[in-house]
Design brief:
Strand order of the largest sheet: 5-2-1-6-7-8
CATH topology of the largest domain: Rossmann fold
Helix content: 25-40%
Order of helices and strands: EHEEEHEHEHHEHHEHHEEHHHHEHHEEHH
Largest sheet: 6 strands, parallel
CATH class of the largest domain: Alpha Beta
Radius of gyration: 25 Å
CATH architecture of the largest domain: 3-Layer(aba) Sandwich
Distance between the termini: 41 Å
Structural class: alpha/beta
CATH superfamily of the largest domain: Crotonobetainyl-coa:carnitine coa-transferase, domain 1
Number of helices: 17
Shape: elongated
Length: 400
């Protein structure tokens, strides 16, 4: 784990001067907010006053909700009531950012859209994630990760050849959209330093998913090639894929000319470098099956650890294929501190997944576990001028 500089505990985090109102649900929106929360933004999560302790991401004390909603203040507020909406607008006046991933019609019905809030705070940066875009033929549809994985082309290129479409093992459209929106929000905040005015920043699961097709998308757009399933083999770089060892399976990536030469020597097959049918990546790609079989005939006789050590010494990328428990037991993963402990008032000490970002001079840690529903409602309302009597009245009316 990177070491904090002296007195790092007393230094403000990079986003500590930013206040973010969190109106998100499920995973994509919370993923965006989590980036901002982990690096010090004052996050105020607005939840319905009838919150039951359960969300699309599971029970409040469950592993998913806890991992998504750490480092936040929790406020219960009925945005459908006039008093609740008025309170929200008072909070908006002092905010820097709003993040939401409602369907377009919902935010307009609740009167919390960008057009509504910029009237009271023109400096506000407003970030939105939708399923398919804010407008267009599918603009009113709700978006779900797996549906978008299918519509965005990813499932058609995932899995073994002939297997049929396969879902990726994580909610990649949700996560990517959240990651991208966090970057978009920071870009808009950076621009605001000059203009003094905020901006609406938005993306969608569909756009994020197609963006993640990356070279497979440009492969089609430029060359007209529609990629299919390549299984564990790299679609264009050979040899890059999964190979047998005497105790399991492991990965090798040796497709470039220089690495291929080093790989042949490390494998004890220097003559492969001279084979005319394998002397370019293009030729190797055409003879993928034969190359993979030839490699397997050698690697299957010794354990994975042997091959990892041999390839590492030769400068050839190589590694084991870990289950998740083995991933967290890996010494490098432990060194990076990606499993981060935090104390929960209800669950005791738990471990969550830390930010993958590192800043020099700042200790990477999760500051607070996910709070109880409504835990900070009174604190936040008082900070924008509500009296004890007014807050008590709002309790009586079910506004908070």
């Amino acid at each position: 784990m990177s070491q904090p500089s002296e007195h790092a505990e007393n230094k403000p985090l990079p986003l500590s001067r930013i206040t973010v109102l969190d109106l998100t649900l499920a995973r994509a929106g919370p993923t965006c907010v989590r980036h901002l929360a982990d690096w010090g933004a004052n996050i105020i999560r607005i939840e319905p006053s009838e919150t039951t302790g359960e969300d699309v991401s599971g029970k409040r004390e469950g592993f998913d909700f806890q991992n998504l909603h750490r480092n936040k203040k929790m406020v219960k507020l009925n945005l459908k009531s006039p008093e609740g909406h008025a309170a929200f607008m008072k909070i908006v006046e002092k905010a820097d950012v709003i993040i939401e991933n409602m369907r377009a019609e919902v935010k307009h019905r609740l009167k919390v859209s960008y057009d509504d809030v910029k009237v009271v705070n023109p400096r506000l940066v407003y970030g939105s994630i939708s399923g398919f875009g804010q407008t267009g033929p599918y603009g009113k549809r709700a978006g779900v990760d797996q549906i978008v994985q299918g519509m965005g082309g990813l499932m058609s290129i995932t899995g073994l050849p002939g297997q049929g479409p396969v879902r990726v093992g994580v909610a990649i459209a949700d996560l990517t959209a959240g990651n991208l929106l966090a970057m978009g929000v920071m870009t808009a905040l950076f621009e605001r330093e000059v203009t003094g005015v905020g901006r609406w920043v938005y993306t969608s699961l569909l756009e994020a998913q197609i963006f993640m097709l990356d070279f497979q998308a440009s492969r089609y757009l430029m060359n007209g090639e529609v990629a299919g399933q390549a299984g564990n083999d790299h679609p264009t770089g050979v040899p890059t894929g999964v190979f047998e060892s005497s105790d399991g399976l492991f990965n090798i990536a040796a497709s470039s000319a220089r690495v291929w030469a080093r790989f042949c020597d490390a494998l004890g097959m220097p003559d492969w470098k001279e084979r005319e049918i394998w002397d370019t990546q293009s030729k190797r790609s055409k003879d993928r099956k034969a190359i993979n079989l030839a490699i397997n005939e050698i690697t299957k006789h010794k354990p994975t650890e042997h091959w990892v050590n041999v390839m590492e010494a030769a400068g050839v990328p190589c590694g084991p294929i870990n289950t998740i428990d083995k991933t967290f037991a890996d010494p490098q993963v432990k060194h990076l501190g990606i499993a981060s402990p935090v104390i929960s008032s209800k669950l005791g000490e738990i471990n969550l997944v830390a930010s993958p970002l590192n800043f020099s001079g700042i200790e990477k840690k999760i500051r607070s576990a996910t709070a109880d529903a409504g835990e900070h409602t009174e604190e936040v309302l008082k900070s924008v001028g509500y009296s004890d009597a007014e807050i008590n009245d709002m309790h009586q009316k079910g506004v908070i």
